[in-house]
Structures are given as structure tokens and as C-alpha cells.
Write a structure and sequence with these properties.
The chain has helices at residues 2-35, 80-89, 111-123, 132-147, 153-172, 188-194, 204-211, 214-222, 270-284, 291-296, 316-324, and strands spanning 53-55, 70-73, 98-101, 127-128, 226-229, 234-237, 299-300, 306-307, 314-315, 360-363, 372-374, 377-379, 389-395, 416-417, 443-449, 453-461. It is an alpha/beta fold.
Length: 463
Amino acid sequence: MARHKGNLYACLLGIVLVIAIFWIVAGDLRNRASFWPNPNSKFPDFSHYDNFTLTLSDEQFPTNDKDRRIIVIGDVHGMNESLTALLNRISYDTQKDILIHLGDLTTKGPVEDSLAVLSFMESNNILGVRGNNDQQVLEWRAWMDWIVSQPGGRDWLVEVDDRWPDYELPLEKGNTFAFDSQPSLMKKHNWGKKVPEGWKPLGDHYQVARAMSPSQYNYLRSLPLVLYAPAGHVFFVHAGLLAADPSRKLTHYKQPLSHWPSIEQREHDIPAIRNAQELALLSDIPQNQDPWVVQNIRSVRKKGKPTRSSSKGTPFSDLWNDVMNKCSGFRTSKTQFGSNTRFTGYQESQLADLPCYPSTVVYGHAAGRGLDVKRWSVGLDSGCFYGRKLSALVLDARSFSSGASEDHTFDFPSEATTDQSHAEPSLPGAVTNHTFDFLSSATDLRIKFDHAGEAHVISVKCH
């Protein structure tokens, strides 16, 4: 009898164990099923375009202070040593100078260097705009935060990290089939169920996003797409802006520079009129409200469509300058508005002048065109990652109409170069009170700026 009861207890125990194992396996399957839902399910918004435009105060953009400079840095792309060299070259003073970057701080260079650049910018709360590569890093990090909130997501992401060395080298060689030898959990078709279409897992952007700290992520999120400095009549943007909507003729009433701004007319309050018209450039031209355009534009094609291409269409900077060169300083325009003159490709316009003052756009992104200085635009992406140069625009009180003397004349050499070189200290992650040492080995280009001012474009060689 006792033996019979023992067998019964053993049988019951076995049944309990089977049920427990089944429950655990089923739970794991439920977690995985919920982690890989219907591929047609919608993703949350990873873009975080919370701050499209930031208007700089007079304190943030001092145009009359002879002791302070405004230094604008082109695309860094994680080239930390080159950034250090450039800041040393211009004797950057963290206590006095205003530093602005034009985006694309990270990727292309080593991940650790991208993190060093981010650390410097974030810890010193440097002003800047968000580049298209920064945008991809930010979106990957937002995706990661979301994925770990899904059932089973955190474990899956840890498994990806653990197996990263197994497919890092094949991926560097362009072999995306490296996934196929991995467990089904990590194969490409499973990524596709949880990654938005067109995203490329495990590349540079993914790695920087995975490695950066929460504060660095928050810094990228805080960056606007456009910085506007009304005191200097300057726009800072990663890729570019348009001075008019290319789908309409220049005299169309919706073109912000075709008419006086709609404010109470104050004949002698030119700053207020200029400010209203410059804000209208941002709000009334639809392309300038499109995040993709301001982060990616290089040219405009014949039918007015912005494109990333450098070889097709007209460079946006040519179009910007064509319009700004028509600004007559609010003199009465000789143009009969409402005429049949059409805005076809900008260059074909027959307009003699427009009721506006010109403004300047400073941008990066177009490394293929190199340093691109025109009268009312400055392109600062001089291809550092490609072994060319990292460039900065240096502005001071003499750069702006309010700080330039009335009898100022221009006698600018095209370029000046010296051959001396010095050792460069490493860029600290956080600078509290430091003046970077002057380095004389660089290129210094003097240019006209604003209505009657001058500026310097200083470049250092990248390695």
C-alpha cells in the first residue's frame, strides 16, 4: 500500500513539473510573440522634432561686444583631434567666446571619438543645430528606449550586444548575410518586424546611439533644426534654407520677400521690419518647415524639388544669393508687382530689386563642394572626415553693421597659409575655464560679412 502511494506521489510530482515547464515555455513564447507583433503595427515617433527653431538672444549672439567672438564650427563627424586642433588654432576662450556647431557631430569617425565630441558639446552646453547624421543617432536611441520597454525586448537587445563581435567584421565588409548564421531571433527578417523600413541596424549610427549616455542623448534631442540670430540677421542650419518657394513666381504675394511684412508700419524701425521678414522666411516658405529639407538639401531641381544631390539641380546657396542680391534695402521697388515675370529656376527672373534687406545663411552638410563662401552664404563642411579640413567661421563686433566703422574698406587676400606646427593637447570632455593655445599652422580666409563687416574662415588640416 505504501509503495502504491509512493508511485502516486511521484506521478503527481511529475505532472506538476510538466505543467511548470509548459507554463515557463509558454510564457517565453508569449513574450516573444508580443515582442514580434504584426509587422504592420505602427511605430511611435522616434524623430523628436520638439524644437524646430531657436531664436538667439542678444546675450547668446553678441554683435557689439568687442571682447567676445562667435565661432561657428562645420561638420565634425567624430574627428575629435581635429576639433581640438581647430579650437586651439583660434584660441577658443570658453569664458568669453560663443561656440556654435552646424550638426553632424558624430559617426564616420571612431565611436569613442564621436562620444568624446558629444561629451564636450553636452557638458559645456554648446549651441548648435541637429544634422542628418545626428538625427539618425537620435532616432536609433529613441528606438532602443522603446524596444527595451517591450516584453522580451531588453533580453533581445542584450543578446544582440553579446553577439556583436560575431558579425561586426562581416558587416564592415558589407556582408549583411552575417545575420543568417545567427539564431532566428536576430535574423534580418526579425529585425524588420521591429525596425522602421529603410533603417540599417548595427551600423555607425546604431553603435553611437547604443554607447552614448542619457545626458548626451538628451543634448541631441535638445538641438533645434534652425538657429536664428536676429541681432546679426543670420540663420544657422545643417543643410540649407530657401529664400523663396521655387514653386511660385517671385512676385507672388505668398513670397515673404515680395512685399512689406504685415506689421504696423514704423518707417524708422528697420530692425523690427527686418525681423518680421526674416521670421517669415522660416514660417511662410513651406520647404523651410520640412525637417528633411533643412537637414538634407544640397540642390533644387528644375521643378522646384529639393534634393540631396550635389550634381543635379542648382545649389541652394546659389538660389539664396540670387534672391538676397535683389534686396534693395527697403527702397521703393521699381518692379511692378503682379507682373508676368515668373520665378523659374531663380536665375531667369527679370526682377531688378525686392523690398527687403539681405540676410545670411551659414550651413554645413555639403562636403562635396568644400568650403563654399558666397556673399550671403557660408558653407563650412570642408570634408574633415575625408582627410581635407575642418573649418570655422569667426565673427566679432567688426562682422556686423552695428560694429563696423562707416569708412571701413575691404582689402582681403584670397588665402594665407603658414607652415609652422605645434603639438595639440587632447580636448577635455568638460571645460570650465580654459583658453585654447594658439596654433599658427592653418588657413585663414578673410571674407565680407553682413552689410559692411568682415569675418574670418579658419581651417585646419584633418588626419
